[in-house]
Amino acid sequence: MFTGEIQRLGSRVLGPSEYPAEAKEKAWEGTSQVEVRFASGGYIRNIIVGDSTGHMLLDEKALEWARSLQYPDVPAELRERDFTVSFPVVFRLR
């Protein structure tokens, strides 16, 4: 299923080597719930943080990750409506 494919593609645990320097220094951790919002026609309308880590730097890194992905084409049966797919981007230092 398309939504499961997007969730598998986007779900990620980011470790210390992928952290913004300030977030690493302050030992921030958390999970950003990223939402990829698709418009009818199969286009990505926007990518946002639906549920924040509470740390803007981590949320921005999660969005950077999500925007870097190569998303598969939306199947024809989903192109007639707007829909959202969400996935977690986890920040963990240990």
Tell me the strand order in the biggest sheet.
1-4-2-3
Helix/strand-derived category reads alpha+beta
Low-confidence stretches: none
Summed up, the domain count is: 1
CATH C-level class:
Alpha Beta
Element order: H for helix, E for strand:
HEHEEHE
Mean pLDDT: 96
So how many helices? 3
**Rg from Cα:** 14 Å
Query: What characteristic shape results from the CA principal axes?
Result: elongated
The number of E-state strands comes to: 4
Portion of residues within helices: 25-40%
Content of β-strand:
25-35%
CATH topology: TolA/TonB C-terminal domain
Corresponding CATH architecture: 2-Layer Sandwich
Please give the largest β-sheet.
Answer: 4 strands, mixed
Report how far apart the termini are.
33 Å
What this model shows, in words?
The protein is built from three helices and four strands. It has 94 residues and is α+β, with helices and mostly antiparallel strands. The chain has one domain: TolA/TonB C-terminal domain (2-Layer Sandwich), CATH 3.30.2420. Strands 1-4-2-3 form a four-stranded mixed sheet. It is elongated and about 45 Å long. The mean pLDDT is 96.
